[in-house]
Amino acid sequence: MTEQTTQQHTNLTDEQREAIEKVGYFMQEYIPFNKYIGLQVQSVEPDSVQLRIPFKEELIGDPQRRAIHGGVLASVLDVAGGTVCWAAMMSLGSRVSTVDLRVDYLRKGLCEELLCEAKLIRLGKSVGVARMEIYPASNRDYVIATGQGVYNLVYRMPKD
């Protein structure tokens, strides 16, 4: 985390911190697909997210090569990108939906615990952009897939 980012995080209100924390909790506990794959939110900040996906046999897409299904990888990249955009909005009442998702599959998805990181690239009035990477927890340098997502943003402030 950069010094500038750290400074930005110390300037957050209690309400903004609470909204960011609740975004992570919501994504982990209330989305049925995320629960099914065992997705765990490791960290959520206004500009970055890290997700953990424990290995499950049900995630294998190629039983002969023993590789994680590409759809699972794409979904996790999308969840990470949407989560970082939603967290950056700092309002739990706001909504995010995917407009475009580009995925580049670089290597076979190893059958082990995976981590996915998302970085916020831009947060505008109506569009957010994030870049994501997914890799095995055992080797940060073995990037399996990268993604870039564009997300529609709908800001809604909670009513008092």
Annotation keywords:
single chain; 160 residues; alpha+beta; Thiol Ester Dehydrase, Chain A; two-stranded antiparallel sheet; 31% helix; disordered N terminus
Q: How would you describe what is shown here?
A:
There is one protein chain. The chain has a single domain, classed as Roll (Thiol Ester Dehydrase, Chain A). The protein has 4 helices and 8 strands. With 160 residues, the protein is of the alpha+beta class. It is globular and about 50 Å long. The strands form 2 sheets. It has a 6-stranded antiparallel beta sheet with strand order 1-2-6-7-8-5. Helix 2 runs antiparallel to helix 4.
What is the topological layout?
Blueprint: H1 3-10, H2 14-29, H3 32-37, E1 40-44, E2 48-53, E3 60-62, E4 67-68, H4 70-89, E5 95-105, E6 114-123, E7 127-136, E8 145-154
Antiparallel strand pairs: 1-2, 2-6, 3-4, 5-8, 6-7, 7-8
Helix pairs in contact: 2-4
Strand portion: 35-45%
Average pLDDT figure: 92
Structural class: alpha+beta
- Please report the first level of CATH classification, the CATH class: Alpha Beta
CATH architectural arrangement? Roll
Radius of gyration over all CA atoms, rounded: 16 Å
Global geometry: globular
Number of strands: 8
* Biggest pleated-sheet summary: 6 strands, antiparallel
The CATH homologous superfamily is called Hotdog Thioesterase
Helix content: 25-40%
Whole-number count of domains:
1
* SSE sequence, one letter per element: HHHEEEEHEEEE
Termini separation: 34 Å
**CATH topology call:** Thiol Ester Dehydrase, Chain A
Spans where pLDDT lies below 50 across 5 or more residues: 1-7
The helix tally amounts to 4
Across the major sheet, the strand order is: 1-2-6-7-8-5
